[in-house]
Design a protein that fits this description.
This protein is mainly α and about 375 residues long. About 60% of the residues lie in helices and about 0% in strands. Helix 2 crosses helix 3. The chain is rod-shaped and about 120 Å long. About 25% of the residues are buried.
Length: about 375
Amino acid sequence: MLTNEHDDSNCFASEYAKENPAEDWAETIATYRYNGLNLKNSCPSKYNYIKDNVFNGAEYTDLNSCSELPKEKLQVASKMFLDELQNGINLKKYSEDEVLQKCAHQFTRYPPIPSEMASCSLSMRFSEESSSVDSLVKKTLLASQIPVTEKNINDLLSSIKVNQELEKKILENTKGISEAIEKSLSSSIQNSLPIGMGKVTKDDPYWWAGDFKCDQKLMEMNKKELSNCLAKVMLDEDSIKQDYHAGKFPTYKVGTLFSDEAIESIKKLREQKLVQHLVEQPEFEEGLEKNISRFKVSLSLHQYLVSDTVSTLGKNLSPKEFCEKSYGVATDTFGFGIDAGTSFPKIQKWCEKIEATQPTRFKINPKDWDLMIETMLPK
């Protein structure tokens, strides 16, 4: 206690002041300096004693004139605020509309970064008036024996640092927000998908671009992989034409939850959705089958050209060299490859095996050829 002479000696500035006279003295002086009005109202005798004997009559009851709060006191208040904040964030589901209302245009990339998710979580945490940031800040200041002034409110808010650990804890308790974000993004992408194949038909030049870029690996793919390859090429071609306002697929604007700068990080996800959409269209199936038929014709024509040309060029090659130049690297002007630079390792190996057993060089039985093609084409 301060002194046995005071009629309010059983009045304490804080719970900690009750520990012993030394703590009572320290807490009372600190409260006089930083929360003088509260001490004056609750413990007037102690207040007057400190005023006369410690501060020489100086008073600090004008809250807005108080100087900077001690760093230690702010740290305690900041921790108290964050603890209270964490305790108030509960595991719950949020509707898409709720998240759209509170977190619109808040996310700059996909997937959302932790700090932006935490920020959205806090927005949802304070969606009710009774649990507003303002009320929590005031509650924290009062509990920390700090005057509730505009300056102290700002000092407390500026001292709060949401670290990665807290972000993680907040995110763990806000799975509902993640689900709402995914639902909103999926809806915005779905709404931008073309009707059917848009303006693309099975005879469109887009297919020829796909032929050229997918043929090289065609015999290494199954039908699903080939479909995805062709669809991806079509989207790439369309993306180039979009720059000239000649694209066939609708452009995409990011959903309400995302800022415009998020579009780059969403492109890959949208591309996956577009590819899936395209390959599910009946028109795409027709175009795919036509593509495979064209490839078969090209291979057969190639085999005919090889037979026709072998009398002049092929006769000087060994069977292995012939097969390599026909279906291997095929990069020189004397190669027999379907396209310069296109190789078909499976056909090359088949060719070497056939040539090793043929009684007449470079004379491939058409039935063997057709059987090989049917066996190796995508299923």
